[in-house]
Design goal:
Length: about 450
């Protein structure tokens, strides 16, 4: 009998198993894969809150020892608005990294085993054991040679990715679900200079991106709305991606032409949803519980944070400090509070709609305001909540950085635009008379009044 069985041994599963083992619980960690696995189909970027978790867990030095270069600035370019800003700091961490996934997965897996988790690979979960009340009490799986595996535990955690078998077996309902919004082509490039920057570009319904990773390589790709995405030959994809850069950053496009692609092209897309995170005898963590478009590259960071939240809740439940069902329910609420703002922001971004004139004017204003520029990239990196960024005081201060010479007419236009609920991740204000809105807006309202 285990305290916890964790199904899925990558980012969220290995972290959860490590934290619970460190807290003294008996943990079985299962995965159908055999490690080390191959290159994961992901673009690897981990924002500072994820790096902070690795630091707290004593694993950051192991990561930096692999030679992965730090990233300190993010760029969000849209048409003529070219924002490049330093990342804000969270508890002293202001760096991101984009580690090649099999290396990060292995660091976390080794840490879980070192902390005492029992690892069994090559085991696929097939069904769950339940008692007469329907409470999950264990797992039934099988090895690659079809040997049955039956194990019991007080809690089964599904860390088995967005197509989670655990979620399917417990019928965990999805909410706030949205279909796949875009698809991307990306690959690894050799010979590009590394300057510690993430670059993203929005133009003509294309989202081009590039940032440094391990072994002197650079991730280069472009996301396109689903309707515009075509499966192409490698040569076609070279042309598609380089021409997307040509439109927004000709110098970088030239660099791409002068250097060379070092891997095959990969394709990726995921739907967007939250899933109920817990029930009697089970819980979900990482992508199993919350999957979002990769355009804001937040899945690993979210998986590390949710592993931390879940482990604290499970520890409280298993040690009797709190009833386990209550602790798990509170984990679900905390997770939703943590991610819901960024989830809306990500979905908005993932449509790859061209920015409106107002949005471009805002991004340009951010390039003139060091704090707003930093906070904007912080919002992209899951560090600043959209409601904080779009607070009346913050926007009021940003209006002072509009194009020099932009008169009160533009300010009024921007305030109206924000109040009417654009961009879409800002909750819309009710449609009431401008005078009423002005009254509610505090200092910003003076423009409307
Ligand atoms: C195209 C693309 C690009 C991305 N880019 C980024 C990025 O730049 N930055 C970022 O932070 N995130 C990115 N992500 C998201 C990121 O990859 C995920 O959020 C992250 O992998 C989630 O980790 P996880 O541990 O929850 O699940 P996973 O990494 O999916 O691991 C699930 C594990 O469960 C195991 N498993 C599944 N079913 C079973 C079963 N029945 N029995 C036993 N084992 C099972 C699998 O073998 C696997 O090892 C990207 C995703 C995509 C699709």
């Amino acid at each position: 009998m285990y305290d916890v069985i964790v199904v899925g041994a990558r980012i969220s599963g290995a972290s959860t198993a490590m934290l619970l083992s460190k807290a003294g619980h008996r943990v079985l960690l299962l995965d159908r894969a055999v490690f080390p696995g191959g290159k994961a189909a992901a673009t690897n970027l981990v924002h500072p809150p994820g790096i902070l978790r690795l630091k707290k867990w004593g694993l950051l030095d192991e990561l930096t020892a692999t030679g992965c270069p730090p990233i300190r600035e993010y760029g969000l370019q849209s048409g003529p608005a070219r924002l490049m800003a330093e990342l804000p700091s969270v508890e002293g961490v202001n760096e991101a990294y984009s580690p090649e996934r099999s290396r990060l997965d292995q660091i976390l897996l080794d840490a879980a085993v070192k902390a005492g988790a029992e690892l069994r690979t090559g085991v696929s979960l097939r069904s769950l054991l339940t008692d007469e009340h329907g409470t999950v009490t264990g797992v039934r799986g099988e090895t690659e040679d079809r040997t049955p595996v039956i194990e019991h535990a007080r809690l089964v955690v599904g860390a088995d990715g967005s197509n989670s078998t655990v979620a399917r077996l417990v019928d965990a309902e999805k909410y706030d679900a949205h279909p796949v919004l875009n698809k991307s082509h990306w690959s690894y490039w050799e010979g590009l200079p590394h300057d510690g920057r993430v670059r993203t570009y929005r133009h003509a319904h294309k989202h081009a991106f590039t940032w440094p990773t391990h072994d002197g390589l650079t991730i280069v790709g472009v996301a396109l709305p689903v309707a515009d995405f075509k499966a192409r030959s490698d040569e076609d994809r070279d042309r598609t991606v380089i021409s997307a850069f040509e439109e927004v950053d000709p110098a970088r496009a030239e660099l791409l032409r002068q250097t060379k692609r070092a891997d095959r092209w990969m394709t990726g897309s995921v739907p967007n949803f939250l899933r109920r995170s817990d029930g009697p005898g089970w819980a979900l963590v990482g992508d199993a519980g919350y999957t979002r478009d990769p355009i804001t590259a937040a899945g690993i960071t979210d998986a590390l944070r949710s592993a931390e939240l879940l482990s604290e809740a499970v520890d409280a439940g298993l040690t009797g400090r709190r009833p386990l069902p209550e602790a798990l329910a509170s984990y679900g609420r905390q997770r939703d509070a943590l991610v819901s703002g960024h989830y809306r922001y990500t979905r908005d971004h993932a449509t790859i709609a061209n920015h409106s004139r107002e949005e471009i004017a805002f991004i340009r204003a951010m390039t003139r305001s060091p704090t707003h520029g930093r906070d904007m990239v912080g919002m992209f990196a899951t560090m600043i909540h959209p409601s904080q960024f779009y607070s009346a005081a913050n926007i009021h201060a940003l209006l002072d950085h509009l194009e020099p010479g932009a008169g009160p007419g533009w300010k009024l236009r921007m305030v109206r635009w924000l109040v009417r609920g654009a961009p879409r991740h800002v909750p819309p204000a009710p449609r009431v008379a401008d005078r009423l809105i002005a009254k509610n807006l505090g200092p910003m309202g003076t423009y409307l009044a």
